[in-house]
Amino acid sequence: MMTAAEANILRIENEKLRVRIELMQKISTTPKFFVYYFSKLSEFGSNKDCFDFLNDQYFEFFGEYKYSDYASFRVQLTKYNKK
User: Which residues have C-beta within 8 Å of that of residue 38, sequence separation ≥ 6?
Assistant: First the structure.
């Protein structure tokens, strides 16, 4: 039988995982990465700061960077916006 404290710890850990999975889904594909990037821009001092944060998050989740640097991200974003 699980104690109330153990149940609370489990509930907190489950919520952390839910939030993590939700963020992973928001940046998992190129279109989703761009949409999330634009939704977060106002929270950062510069476009590059926002990109760096999201690219680092992508690395944390998937073990590789989505983009090698900000310049390559901008090239892909420009191509995506021309579609």
Answer: none
